[in-house]
Amino acid sequence: MPYENIRFETSEGIARLTLHRPDKLNSFTLAMHRELRHALDALQADASVRVLVLSGAGRGFCAGQDLADLDGKLGPDEVGVLVEQYYSPLVQTLRALPFPVLCAVQGIAAGAGANLALACDIVLAARSASFVEVFCKIGLVPDTGGTYFLPRALGTARAMGLALLGDKLSAEQAEQWGLIWKCVDDAALAAEVEQLAGQLARAPTLGLARTKQALYASPGNSLEQQLALEARCMRELSASHDYREGVAAFLEKRAPRFEGK
Length: 261
Fold this sequence. Notes:
Blueprint: E1 6-11, E2 14-19, H1 30-44, E3 51-56, H2 76-96, E4 101-105, E5 108-110, H3 112-118, E6 122-126, E7 130-132, H4 146-154, H5 156-165, E8 169-170, H6 171-177, E9 182-184, H7 189-201, H8 205-217, H9 223-237, H10 241-252
Parallel strand pairs: 2-3, 3-4, 4-6, 5-7, 6-9
Antiparallel strand pairs: 1-2, 7-8
């Protein structure tokens, strides 16, 4: 399908998906959601992809939902359908992708935009970036996984403060609190993202996918369940091409050439 609200391309194992409504701070519309779904479906069917870079065009990452796009239809049916049919599947799809998802945040990440970033595996943010849970300003609850990600990353006290007060959280503070991986100078963001994307694209993708799976399963598992999951992953991965290549490269004292399988 032709994309008007996003930009999507793949090259050398790296997929790049850019929210592209810069004049509206990349706020979500139904059309953008449909394009995102199409692009993510294409990603899942492309065995060559080994990392996804998610970003926003212009001066902001994403300002959340564009309320004007709903044409005044803001009742319980419309809002409920919006969350259930668009935002929730978007988060679930991102979390389940069998390769790392790297998010680059510049400017504002607000509402669903903030939580979309938190749904990614690794988040890099420009020093001038900020995260804000704006839902309390209009009487709603943080969606797009906000009530799931925030307490797990920050603990209840900080999650409550962000969700109930709606204050901006700077990228530097987000890094210090462990909400994101790294805060970098604005001018360095693009280069940092490219370096990390290249590193992940050359890594043993299947092993990274199982690492994601194990880490995300951990909070809901007992120690015994987690140990069993680790054993299953290790059994599968020890039969993989990249494991054999990694061991051979180590023994031969050379750089490994992983194929992602």
